[in-house]
Design a protein that fits this description.
Pfam families: C2-set_2, EGF. It is built from one helix and 24 strands. It is mainly beta. It binds 2-acetamido-2-deoxy-beta-D-glucopyranose (4 copies).
Length: about 350
């Protein structure tokens, strides 16, 4: 009786096992970048089955629906047409649990696409199989990065760019052309990340040759705090890419708007960020805001916060001013009051 019961359990469990089936697992990285320095790409496929009574039958590598190499019961691959143009550009290896396919002489866009690995096991008449895929990105790195403004004026690397306060928004566009895949951008000011609110989402245009031009904008107001800072754009388009970068030094004109009161004439000192005021008779430096103390009987002009038609202070600048100065103590880019000589 006892033997009969054991026999029954074996039959029942075999029946359940047969219903459940075997699970073949095939794992691949979802995307793989080619190495633009070596022109090689390595695709890896890890596989297994949860039932040791099954043995390995075959592993097939495909590009789209084209068979490129297979291992039928062996560890020696057979290569197909794809691998013969040019000859020898595929090299595949296999163990009992993984296979690697190394592709060389890569060409964009020819070799970019979906690569599959299908593994089949066998036991009696059962041949369970599973496929997984990776998308290969054939990297075309950026050769050049350019920086230009909204009217198309391009800036050379390391140059000095004035943020005029005549313009309320200065748009800088950073662009890399003819790359694959698209780039991501990092903007910094003196090494610190630029506030994300000032950066637009990058735009990626794909040309007829399938290569991409990626662009990113940063919009800066002419704030004095930007004076003397280095604005840098870095573009990266693949894993481990050192990236390409370009930078400019921003200057903000300290005479724009005019910090001088009472019709003082502003000029920029040689450092490019400090203003100095030339005051009319009767007013004192640094900002011509104070009346010269007098001992004579002649009456000097009353110190004024001269007002324009809009009621705001105005000046007699040498160049037209968009915004007259506020009647406050102006500060230099370093936060200290600007000083005269
Ligand atoms: C493909 O492989 C990944 C692991 O790299 C795994 O998460 C995924 O489930 C696999 N897909 C299939 C269909 O087996
Ligand atoms: C763009 O840069 C050029 C060259 O520096 C300059 O002449 C032009 O005024 C700038 N345009 C804007 C909108 O800033
Ligand atoms: C950048 O700004 C310019 C000028 O306003 C605009 O034409 C262009 O589409 C913008 N580009 C991006 C990537 O936002
Ligand atoms: C700009 O200059 C920096 C520093 O010299 C350099 O690393 C970078 O490659 C240059 N970029 C371009 C586009 O020439």
């Amino acid at each position: 009786m006892a033997e009969f019961a054991v026999f029954q359990i074996v039959i029942v469990s075999a029946f359940l096992f047969g219903l459940r089936g075997q699970t073949v697992t095939v794992n691949m990285q979802s995307s793989v970048y080619s190495n633009p320095n070596t022109d090689l790409a390595t695709l890896r496929c890890d596989f297994g089955i949860d039932d040791p009574t099954f043995s390995f039958l075959t592993l097939e590598w495909t590009f789209g629906s084209t068979l490129i190499a297979d291992f039928f019961k062996t560890t020696t691959p057979t290569y197909y047409d794809f691998c013969n143009t040019p000859a020898g550009r595929c090299s595949a290896t296999r163990t009992s649990s993984n296979s690697e396919l190394v592709l060389s002489s890569l060409e964009f866009p020819r070799d970019q696409g979906t690569y599959g690995c299908r593994v089949t096991y066998v036991s009696g008449s059962q041949t369970p199989n599973k496929q997984n895929t990776s998308s290969l990105l054939v990297v075309v790195p950026a050769a050049l990065v350019t920086l230009f403004n909204a009217s198309g004026g391009t800036f050379t690397n390391g140059s000095v760019v004035k943020l005029s306060s005549e313009v309320s928004e200065h748009i800088f566009t950073c662009q890399v052309q003819n790359i694959n895949p698209e780039a991501t951008f990092t903007w910094t000011l003196d090494g610190n990340p630029v506030d994300s609110g000032l950066i637009s989402n990058p735009v990626h245009d794909v040309g007829a040759d399938s290569l991409t031009t990626s662009s990113s904008n940063v919009t800066l107001e002419p704030k004095r705090e930007y004076g003397g800072q280095e604005l840098k754009c870095k573009a990266v388009n693949y894993e481990d890419d050192p990236g390409v970068m370009i930078s400019v030094t921003l200057i903000v004109d300290p005479c724009d708007p005019n910090p001088c009161y009472n019709g003082g004439t502003c000029s920029v000192m040689s450092d490019g960020i400090t203003a100095t005021c030339e005051c009319p008779t009767g007013f004192e430096k640094p900002l011509c805001e104070t009346k010269v103390p007098t001992t004579t009987s002649t009456t000097p002009p009353e110190p004024t916060q001269p007002t324009g038609t809009d009621g705001k202070p105005t000046t007699v600048p040498t160049t037209p001013r968009r915004t007259p100065p506020e009647p406050t103590q102006p500060t230099g880019t370093d936060g200290k009051p600007t000083t005269g000589k």
